[in-house]
Design goal:
Layout (H helix, E strand, L loop, with lengths): L9 E6 L1 H18 L5 E7 L3 H10 L5 E9 L10 E5 L9 E9 L3 H11 L5 E9 L12 E5 L22 E4 L7
Parallel strand pairs: 2-3, 2-5, 5-6, 6-7
Antiparallel strand pairs: 1-8, 3-4
The structure holds guanosine-5'-monophosphate (5GP) and magnesium ion (MG) (2 copies).
The site of guanosine-5'-monophosphate (5GP) has 17 residues, from strand 5 and helix 3.
Length: about 180
């Protein structure tokens, strides 16, 4: 799917595929350096992080292992409540492991904050976070994120794994939607 398949749904491209690729290459270089000689497990948070995981993993030179978690915020609406339920847990025992959580976006940070304390309680050797996008203006909790792709304005974005009502995940870029898509 691409810009030309979007009809009038797309308002604008915020981050192009080329910018994403270049940023992931930068982040991969840092991660390769920081984890050199270690046995890194990268954990993707489904479903949004699928694209970041796939592209980041292929850009890394280190032989990482990959696992997945699916979590869901309880409650209604589009806002995160911070009360999180595990839909799919890790297959891996992370006790004593170097773990890097890979996220699509950090908005309020409530989901990630919950996830961090959940995983921390399993006794990993180290636990860090890599996110493609972060909305600094939306943060409700402060989280120490080691690898950040882009800080973006506090607006709703789709593409590159991120959905609106499960659509637009397969856009190769990150963009915003026209108001009519939301029924506006
Ligand atoms: P948080 O707990 O940080 O508020 O929410 C994190 C989750 O909310 C993300 O993993 C993502 O699923 C969703 N989310 C937050 N902001 C956006 C956004 O701008 N666009 C989309 N599509 N999802 C978002
Ligand atoms: Mg996510
Ligand atoms: Mg979503």
């Amino acid at each position: 799917m691409d810009e030309k398949d979007m009809g009038t749904d797309l308002a604008k491209v915020l981050i192009s595929k080329e910018e994403i690729d270049a940023k992931l290459a930068e982040l991969a270089e840092l991660i390769d350096r920081d984890y050199a000689g270690r046995d890194l497990l990268i954990v993707g948070v489904l479903k949004g992080a699928v694209m970041v995981m796939a592209d980041l993993a292929r850009t890394l030179h280190s032989p990482v292992t990959m696992d997945w978690m699916a979590v869901s915020s309880y409650g209604m609406g589009t806002k995160s409540s911070g009360v999180v339920r595990i839909l799919k847990d890790l297959d891996t025992d992370i006790n004593g492991r170097d773990v890097l959580i890979v996220e699509d976006i950090i908005d309020s940070g409530l989901t990630l904050s919950w996830l961090l304390s959940n995983l921390q309680s399993r006794g990993p050797a180290s636990l860090e976070v890599c996110t493609l996008l972060r909305k600094p203006d939306a943060a409700k909790v402060s989280i120490d994120v080691k690898y950040v792709g882009f800080d973006i304005p506090n607006e709703f974005v789709v593409g590159y794994g991120l959905d609106y009502a499960e659509k637009y995940r397969n856009l190769p870029f990150v963009g915003t939607l026209a108001p009519h898509v939301y029924g506006g």
